[in-house]
Amino acid sequence: MYPRSMADSDCVVIQGSNMAECHPVAFRWPMQAKLKGATLIHVDPRFTRTSAVADIHAPIRAGSDVAFLGGLVRYVLESARWNTDPFFREFVVNYTNAATIVGESFKDTEDLDGAFSGLMEYTPGIKEWPLDGFVGEYDPQSWRYAAGPGRQPSAPPPAGPPFDPLVRSLLGPLPRRDESLKDPRTVFQIVKRHFSRYTPEMVERVTGCPTETFVRVAEAILANSGRDRTTSFAYAVAWTQHTNGPQTIGCCALLQLLLGNIGRPGAGVMALRGHAGIQGSTDIPTLYHSLHGYMNHPSALKHHASLRDWLRAETTPRGYGANTPKFMVSYLKSMYGAAATKDNDFGYDWHPKIIGDHSHLPMFVAMADGRVKGMLCIGQNPATSLNASVERKGLARLEWLVVKDNWLTETATFWQNSPEITSGQLKSQAIQTEVFFFPSAQVAEYEGSFTNTQRMLQWHFKAADPPGDCRTDLWLTHQLARRLKAMYADSPLPRDAGFKNLVWDFDSDDPREQARGEPDALKILKEINGWVTDEPGRHLGNFGELKDDGSTTCASWIYCGVFPAPDRNLAARRQPDAPNTPGAQLGWGWAWPANRRILYNRASADVQGRPWSERKKWVWWDGAKWAGYDVPDFAPTKAPSSKGAPDAIGLDALSGSEPFIMKDDGVGWLYVPTGLVDGPLPAHYEPVESPVGNPLYRQQSSPVLKYWKLDGNAIASVGGDQRFPYIVTTYRLTEHYLSGAMSRWNPWLAELQPEFFVEINPELAAEKGVGNTDWVTVSTPRGHIRGRALVTRRMRAFTIAGRTVHHVGVPFHWGYQGIVTGDAGNELTALVADPNVSIHEGKAFVCNVEKA
Predict the structure, then answer these.
(1) What sections of 148-277 are H helices per DSSP?
(2) What is the pLDDT of residues 382-412, one digit of tens each?
(3) Which of 26, 65, 38 is nearest to 272 (CA)?
(4) Is the pLDDT of residue 130 over 70?
(5) Dist. CA 749–CA 746, nearest whole Å
(6) Would you say 624 and 616 are in contact if contact means Cβ atoms under 8 Å apart?
(7) Angle at alpha carbon of residue 547, lines to 541 and 549, rounded to 5°
(8) From CA 845, how far away is CA 688, in angstroms rounded?
(9) Contact 56, 29 (CB under 8 A)
């Protein structure tokens, strides 16, 4: 969904986020909904400013979100309203995989006491990079659907492009279905059984949320879901930064699908991004494992040896994913231009291949082990990041480090005044890392685009020249690329062909920018949008124009259409809808894909293409085409009554009533047969560090989480280490920004939040003899920090599995540089991560607190 649509919600649930303080601009949309009568619910361990304006605050302990959401799923499925209102059944049977039958070999957590079938010991893929951190892994074959009759995948044709024959060779039989939902192997029955133990009483036992509060939340969501009403959810990093973070989000999506709250106005699941460019940094990825537009990065560990191998591994034959060859070939043409031809696989062999998990945590594990020679650190401050002492140890083993930032951050000065230096553990003279600092221009000192939390690109213009030697981030990338190309220009080595053939034509035509060596940001956006290969002035209007024969050039298929003509930068538009008229603000900026604002919006109409209700109409069939307030997320002229062709590929394989066109079966997934590595359904697992045993299953934590065993990364004893009896969570403040590298240098913001503090409740303070503003020490198995005690009832004690458990809150914005300084909260965290995307578990671990 997009945040503005939250103003159309009848109920807004904010969980995993303190939206009022951390996303105050976007928070105006839930508040507008509240002014119109919507119910606002906040589910969070702390009572915050978001809680203060909510109609219901449901307190839960950190790390128990799946138990709470799973309880909501069970409550909905057992409710009289869900079982008697025909809307829910119509939506679920037709628009989800509820009726799909799962294969006989699948075993659920109910069968295996907390694990799924296919669990086995993890084996690293490459000896030189055994840093993936897995403690176990699943073979997901048993999670697949039960196949019905039909064709089997065949051997690929010998040549291409075009690649349609290759895609067609991937077609397999359609899965079996039972639309009565009575077969015990249907997804619906498996989901119902899976969540049967998540009773309101169990929810209270696991989360600490009182049963009556939980029931109020469940009833409010049920009352505000249906044909004429919609509920939306919003979350942020308090859902993601867990060893089961993706499963938490998936559990919410499952709940929203059951309630018919996907693809409709005022519905959906809103991922609140950390700042204006985070969405863009995953779309145009700074992530190791993906290419532009969320295509998987070529890997030496998968069947990716050739372009054809990659296409066979990554293309789904049914649904819009069948166009993957067009996306990939157009991307390779953007990379290598005229040098990328059919005869050389469009330069695929020149493209880098990954050999494992190269994300932040294993990279710093490798760095601390001396395996990494150098680092370019741009807009990041790892010296105060996750398990900060280990990360500083890694920095100290580099040969060289480039820091490009606004100020001299802790990372830039780790060799000079880090805790290890000031305590005498290390001497500056012993650190051989050569540090280069590049002063950075501020965002108003250059032009470019933001892609914000609603997938919308907005162009910002340059307001002033940066002072002195300050340069933009674009400058560094541009100059580095130019110099590397020059360095490799005469190399005869095959491994250097990628650099030699890389297309890099972004020099500015403005003499003033030329003098500074700055590139042209508009040229970069044009390259991202794409054009007809032999006619660079003929821009592509949308991704439907992409080809797999090299005749189109496009860096990022999802952004195709943002620059449809050389003089039409749609990201720069600022035309709002007329006041008091329904609409999606389509003239303001440009949102991917295709400028549509609500994804899968075909689901806003019923099977016949009629709006579910006049009040919630959004997209509908007008007799000849799909129309509405938004750009329809569907084949424009495909009638609702159209049948899918079983032997067809692409959208021709889907019917006119299957809205989820990016899925190969055209429906939303309650159960995930492929794509996740930690199970097809969400299950409650305790964080790696927890003061209690898992009340739901014998399996304590995720059996496939990532943990890196090394000095300085010790973990508390499982299920209740008496040395560290309290739950600790990190969080952010309105007045500071991330590690504080920007905000702690600002005198006005520093004055508003001048000092690091530790938030504890009055009961724990009394137990420890601590008064408000007293100094306290917080310790974990990794280290300790010192700060002022903020004694407040915003923190509370929970009763978990019959025992009292206290919460401690630690903001993470401080460090040893800036106008104001203080201990870094991330000194306490551990290098543990979820197995899908390797995000760390910084929102729930254990600690001790003592008066300092």
Answers:
(1) 164-169, 187-194, 200-207, 211-223, 237-240, 245-258
(2) 999 999 999 999 999 999 999 999 999 999 9
(3) 26
(4) no
(5) 6
(6) no
(7) 145
(8) 7
(9) no
